[in-house]
Amino acid sequence: MKQDAAAAAIVEGDYHVVSPKLFIPADTTRYYSHWATAKRVMDIVLSTLALVVLSPVMLLLALLVKRSSPGPVLFKQERLGRDGRPFTFYKFRSMEYNSDDAIHRQFAAMFISGDESGCAESNAGDKVFKLKADPRVTPIGAWLRKTSLDELPQLFNILKGEMSVVGPRPPIAYEIENYQPWHMERLKAVPGLTGLWQVSGRSSVSFEEMVRLDVQYINDWSLAWDVAIILRTIPVVLWGTGGY
């Protein structure tokens, strides 16, 4: 079947972005079929197991964040979930407390519009779609971001049903102010901790490519594909692929 072939391609690291000249609107028929219940059950089981297994690691990270700079351990931010519904999004704090978001607002507008002038570069000199030399990030925060360990508190968002293990990343409200109408298609699914974008290049993928990947995920969704993306996420996190 088409979904099984796509899942196999993800496992082999062979998935490619659809041509920019083609765009298929998000069709949620498959995504919200009777298998949606099975996806939710998998989310609950995996997030619960992860919280139990990783609780010592999360406690250690919380202590490191607390000792690294003044401020709370958790960073809480309003994000937009399925159909644009707002929810409180959790991360380990990686920036100085009460940092001004103006620098990120400017970068987000440039990134979404395709302006790469504010992007960073990897050690190999490749373009990385991340904010260049963000002065707000703490030393421990830079490491947390590189390893994606700052994302672990989102396991609670998954348990609450606000997020899924796999899905598009949830945007900030001010980001969608810069969206084109077709970009909104990515909000038709429950946002995820990981997704097709993360295992297809992460920060080396442009915004337009990310949207196309999100829509492809929604259109071709299957449980097998979710499992394949989760398996591909493990080496991406361990090796910091596409990170910065």
Would you mind describing this structure in some detail?
The chain has 244 residues and is an alpha+beta fold. It has one domain. 43% of the residues lie in helices and 11% in strands. The protein contains eight helices and six strands; from the N terminus they run ααββαββααβαβαα. A two-stranded antiparallel sheet has the order 1-2. Strands 3-4 form a two-stranded antiparallel sheet. Helix 6 links the parallel strand 5 (164-166) and strand 6 (192-194). The model is unreliable at 1-21 and 121-127 (pLDDT under 50).
Rg over alpha carbons: 17 Å
The SSE order reads HHEEHEEHHEHEHH
Chain-averaged pLDDT: 84
Q: How many β-strands, per DSSP? A: 6
Low-confidence stretches: 1-21, 121-127
**Fraction of residues in β-strands:** 5-15%
Shape: globular
Report how far the terminal alpha carbons are from each other: 36 Å
Number of helices: 8
Structurally, how many domains make up the residues?
Answer: 1
Strand order of the largest sheet: 1-2
Helix proportion: 40-55%
What's the main sheet like? 2 strands, antiparallel
Secondary-structure-based class equals: alpha+beta
Q: What labels describe this entry?
A:
11% strand; alpha+beta; 244 residues; 43% helix; 6 strands
What is the gist of this entry?
The protein has one domain (2-238). The chain has eight helices and six strands, in the order ααββαββααβαβαα. The chain has helices at residues 2-11, 35-68, 102-113, 139-147, 154-159, 173-176, 207-219, 223-239, and strands spanning 74-80, 86-92, 119-121, 127-131, 164-166, 192-194.
